[in-house]
Amino acid sequence: MQFQTLIFAVFFVLVLSANWLLRRHDMPRKLLLVLASYYFYFHMSFTWLMPSILAGSSLLNYFCGEGIFKAREAGNKGAQRAWFMLGIWGNLLTLGIFKYYGFFQENVENVLGNFGMSSHLPILEIMLPVGLSFYTFQGLSYIMDLNRGKGVRANTVVDFLLYISFFPQLLSGPICRPKELLPQLHEGLPQSIPEPSRAVSLILSGLFKNVVLSHYLYMHIVGDVFLDPSDYSAASLWVGMFAYALYIYVDFSGYTDLAVGLSLLMGVRIPHNFNHPYLASDVSNFWGRWHMTLSRWINDYLFVALGGRDINKRWTALFWAWVLCGLWHGAAWNYILWGAYFAIALLIHHYLRSGIKKKWKGGVAGQIGTFIVVCFGWVIFASPDLETLWAYLTGLWRFTAPGEGFEAFVLVVLVLGAFMHIFGERLRNGFIRLHDGMPPLLRPVAWLAIGLIILALKPSGMSPNLYFGF
């Protein structure tokens, strides 16, 4: 049940209506939203395994959080640590079994096979639950905040279940901190929908990115160029690299626009994830603009846990935090290499910042250089295996070698996507001004007209939602 489908539209209208009809009945309303979120999650696989894992993970974190809070209040440091470690290892075990076991088993077999040995580890056919990494991070942030004595405690188990499973942001974030979402659940709904015109503008923007730009880029170049890069000319590979950078942006930021817009209609504010990332003047600035909720999570929890506050451990902590960030994205060597690549890029940035970089303002040259560095990172990210990665990177420099080209139409989509990246916020603000100036009865007509235009532009076929696999 993806956001851009008719069945989701029907589901959302029903849930939205019930949400506001029950505004004065807070607990029944929240119970309804929990059930709706689990029903939505069930529809992603039509098996109860995924909702069961979600429920188990949520209850683990809730009761560990309760144990941490009560032990801390009683001054029982031993019990507090025991509950905390139970929560940490429970979450890591869940990730390990469902996301990383296959990768571990395969690599152990490959290493031992070189010596004529076998591990005899069982091969488990385990389905990766959609959104597992996202909601696991939300659960971890809850128990880690409570352990530090800085967290917001859920009033009830229902509040916590909703905090983890709230369907607009369940599958691919944004990763909400307890302090960002739980107080809103405790306070109940506002008197009316906050910023309805902004919510609609985000939904329409997200649909255009997701339904039109993302699909065209995937179907006309991105979906093919990484299958066998040796078939393509160097020029096509360069265009493919830039196209992938735009594709991952419109795909993921489009989903985030939809998540934020749908949440606003339901009376809930969740954080944004993107702020013109390809206009960043250096790599550190890029990660302050791209997937911002993940970047903050890595910095506040993982970097600190690895000793990042210790001046002697800072750079080692930064390196391993970003390697683990790569592994968080997927159980494959290309993701680990991608994390290491950006770790090295950040280390170089911090080293240079103490010298020439301190005086250099970046400007357009910094933006272009940063964009190219990021694009090479996306080649690592997108390559399904190391052989494909090598073929792509070497093919970028074979300017005399023949190969397939690309449709000129791709350039039109690239220009449109770049325009949305640079001017998307201004377009939304312009829509809001027009929307607010319209007679109320005309507003739904405008929404419908723009929605129909987006559907008319939609290509046949669908591209995969990239971040659903994380």
Describe this structure in words.
The protein is an all-alpha fold and 470 residues long. It folds into two domains: 6-187, no CATH class; 196-395, no CATH class. Helices cover 70% and strands 0% of the residues. It contains 18 helices and no strands. Helix 3 (49-74) packs parallel to helix 5 (132-148).
Strand content: under 5%
- What's the number of extended β-strand segments? 0
**End-to-end separation:** 17 Å
How much is the radius of gyration in Å? Answer: 23 Å
Q: How would you sum up the major sheet?
A: none
Global mean pLDDT: 90
Low-confidence stretches: none
Structural class: mainly alpha
What level of helicity do the residues show?
A: 55-70%
| Helix count from the secondary structure assignment | 18
Spell out the helices and strands N to C.
HHHHHHHHHHHHHHHHHH
| Shape label | globular
**Total tally of structural domains:** 2
Any descriptors?
470 residues; mainly alpha; 2 domains; globular
Helices and strands in order:
Layout lengths: L5 H16 L4 H17 L6 H26 L2 H37 L18 H17 L8 H9 L12 H10 L8 H30 L8 H32 L17 H5 L4 H14 L8 H16 L3 H21 L2 H4 L3 H20 L3 H10 L13 H29 L5 H15 L13
